[in-house]
Design goal:
- The chain has 3 domains: 4-30 and 326-450, Rossmann fold (3-Layer(aba) Sandwich); 34-230, no CATH class; 233-323, Translation factors (Elongation Factor Tu (Ef-tu), domain 3), CATH 2.40.30.10.
- By secondary structure, the chain is α/β, with parallel strands linked by helices.
- The chain has helices spanning 4-22, 34-65, 70-87, 91-104, 108-115, 118-138, 146-163, 167-170, 174-202, 207-211, 214-227, 296-306, 348-352, 368-372, 374-383, 406-420, 431-443, and strands at 233-236, 239-243, 248-253, 260-265, 271-277, 286-291, 315-323, 334-340, 358-365, 389-395, 424-428, 447-450.
- The protein contains 17 helices and 12 strands.
- A 7-stranded antiparallel beta sheet has the order 1-7-4-5-6-3-2, with helices on both faces.
- Helix content is 53%, strand content 16%.
Length: 455
């Protein structure tokens, strides 16, 4: 049964929202540059992963150098760095971090570190390039210089991958970034295997010699890591169940769960993670995936569906789900969630499957009843009516909200924090709003969870 306190809190904050709509104020940032705010948000994690990467490199160099010359030591450390580069971007590793930290309790600091493991990925990639350069510089070459050609090609491919991963390129040309990372990565590993085999043949290695070298097992590990995302992928036949101007929804098999996401292969053969959601709140055998036009590939799927051509009638999915940052909400007794637009989709299971957490939601969007339909919203509200859950809807199409800036919505978010006094706040939004909201929450001393947008 919904508590009297929760009902009174909802009514009181609705009055605060009404007053704010008449006389909005902007959040006054202490740091005006977004890049600086982002760095400020991430600085502890940046230093942690930088230190760990540096220590691992030093330890690897120290222990390996004792028994090998510089060129061979650099080659082995290169492979170690590459292995750790790929491991740190593994869906399974990220899932295990979220799962273990979430199981241990309210470990917000550790969550922030694990959520930004992308720093470690970058540092180890740069380490790999440096050690590869050291190996190239110290290795003696002889005609016909096949080794040299392979190494120079490998250095070039890795350099391109690293340069195109910088935010200035990655965010503007995201599809190109993904293609370069994927196919450039495959090419780099192919060149690496070819170089290893070439050096072994030149040294007249036997099969026993190959099997006795640690490089062989590191290369095998790298290959396994590259194909691992496709292990366990199976065909699915999604059922289209929701079409709106900017949101489509489909039903796929699997018991609903909160704080998880599923990898779906889009029609253009690129897999994409989507937050697990629900559409029939009493269905325990299926889950829903909502898709909004967040990029070129998702836009293609949404627009084609609106035109009567649903592209995902047959696709593939990794049926084992992965945990994300929303998984941690169940550790708290009282939380605030701010969502924009279709960001409500992965929040829905947190509301419906909630058993004990008091949840207050600030949902900012363009005509929510049109995008998610009146019957669906009514069904959701009815389902959670007996729980301590409050949802405040802000329709940005309303005349008095059309001139609101992000800074005004963040000011309202902080008012919600003052009103509800949550143990933690969760931000489910686009990159720009998430960065600014997370920084404002951090400045205000509120534990904040949200996407990092580092890939």
């Amino acid at each position: 049964m919904k508590s009297k306190e929760s009902i009174e809190q909802f009514q009181a904050f609705e009055q605060i929202i009404a007053a704010f709509r008449k006389a909005p104020t902007d959040y006054r940032r202490k740091i005006n540059n977004r890049l600086t705010r982002q760095l400020h948000n991430a600085l502890p994690a940046f230093l942690f992963w930088l230190t760990l990467a540096g220590l691992l490199n030093l330890l690897a160099w120290h222990y390996i150098q004792e028994s090998q010359d510089i060129a061979e030591t650099a080659a082995l450390v290169t492979l170690i760095s590459l292995t750790l580069t790929i491991v740190s971007r593994s869906y399974t590793v990220n899932h295990l971090l979220h799962h273990s930290i979430g199981r241990l309790g309210k470990l917000h600091t550790w969550h922030n570190l694990s959520e930004r493991i992308g720093f470690f990925h970058r540092f180890m990639a740069i380490s790999m390039l440096v050690w590869l350069g050291v190996h190239t510089g110290y290795k003696p070459f002889a005609a016909p210089y096949m080794d040299e050609v392979l190494l120079v090609a490998l250095l070039g491919v890795v350099s391109i991958i690293i340069l195109t991963s910088f935010a200035i390129f990655r965010r503007k040309y995201h599809n190109h970034f993904e293609n370069i990372h994927r196919y450039g990565g495959y090419l780099a590993v192919t060149l690496l295997v070819a170089y290893f085999l070439q050096t072994g043949i030149e040294s007249s290695y036997s099969l026993i010699d190959f099997l006795s070298r640690p490089e062989t097992y590191l290369i095998l590990a790298i290959i396994v890591l590259l194909i691992a995302p496709w292990i366990g992928v199976s065909e699915v036949y999604p059922e289209l169940v929701h079409v709106a101007p900017h949101v489509i929804g489909m039903r796929i098999p699997g018991k609903p769960s909160f704080g998880t996401y599923t990898r779906i292969t889009l029609s253009n053969r690129h897999f994409h993670p989507f937050g697990d959601s629900m559409i029939d709140f009493d269905d325990q055998n299926n889950r829903a995936i909502y898709i909004t036009p967040a990029g070129d590939r998702t836009t293609e799927v949404v627009e084609s569906t609106k035109n009567g051509n649903f592209l995902l009638t047959e696709t593939t999915a990794k049926m084992r789900r992965f945990k994300g940052f929303m998984y941690h909400h169940a550790n708290y007794d009282n939380i605030l969630i701010v969502v924009t637009g279709g960001g409500i989709a992965p929040v829905i299971p947190c509301l419906v499957l909630n058993t004990q957490t008091r949840i207050n939601v600030l949902w900012i969007g363009k005509d929510q009843p049109e995008e998610f339909t009146e019957p669906l919203l009514k069904s959701l509200m009815d389902k959670i009516s007996n729980q301590d859950i409050n949802i405040h809807l802000l329709n940005t199409h309303d005349p008095d909200l059309q001139n609101f800036t992000d800074k005004a919505y963040i000011a309202l978010l902080l008012k919600a924090c003052d009103h509800y006094n949550p143990e933690a706040a969760f931000v489910m939004s686009n990159q720009k709003f998430t960065i600014d909201a997370m920084h404002a929450l951090k400045e205000s001393g509120v534990k904040a969870y949200g996407a990092t947008f580092d890939s």
